[in-house]
Amino acid sequence: xxxxxxxxxxxxxxxxxxxxxxxxxxxxxxxxxxxxxxxxxxxxxxxxxxxxxxxxxxxxxxxxxxxxxxxxxxxxxxxxxxxxxxxxxxxxxxxxxxxxxxxxxxxxxxxxx
Amino acid sequence: xxxxxxxxxxxxxxxxxxxxxxxxxxxxxxxxxxxxxxxxxxxxxxxxxxxxxxxxxxxxxxxxxxxxxxxxxxxxxxxxxxxxxxxxxxxxxxxxxxxxxxxxxxxxxxxxx
Lengths: 113, 113
Description:
The complex is a heterodimer of chains A (113) and B (113).
Chain A: E1 4-7, E2 10-13, E3 19-25, E4 31-38, E5 42-51, E6 54-57, E7 64-66, E8 76-78, E9 87-94, E10 102-104, E11 108-112
Chain B: E1 4-7, E2 10-14, E3 19-25, E4 30-38, E5 45-51, E6 56-59, E7 62-67, E8 72-77, E9 86-94, E10 101-103, E11 107-112
Parallel strand pairs in B: 2-11
Antiparallel strand pairs in B: 1-3, 3-8, 4-5, 4-9, 6-7, 7-8, 9-10, 9-11
């Protein structure tokens, strides 16, 4: 997986439930990101974190929450407040150096049933 | 914040033709411009990137050009092959504050044999 692992690959959520998506990395990168992908919408930033115990809202943070208790882990919780959660969620990591590429996990496809 | 516009949204070419995808960005502080290729159901992967201190970069059949004055950059694929069919995303990253990657909405490239 190139040092970044997302799980599960597929996730089904009932209306009103919170669900948590996992993102783990072993490349010792400081920065971690969550993106949401919808058809025709590109990749939209939900949350990001540059260091442990600190994170920032992205463009579409409403209805989501994150934590960064360990450098290796950046879980995303999709809460019941997110009205349209069905999407493909991608976690990415990046070195703290600014002019560097982001590496993506394999993604989690979340479906509300 | 940064805004990245990408055109066209879809592009169909014959095998062997060239393909060009164009992006514009809004933040003059942006200085790193990667291009990602995403095959159906898979993660985006970096294919080429360019930094603001150069105007062009080439890697075999792929090239990227950057015009900082006009704030636009382009991806050029020559001698296209069916395996080039995918969604391509451009992105821009600023060197100020918290550095995030802002993505365009993507271009679906279809190469017909």
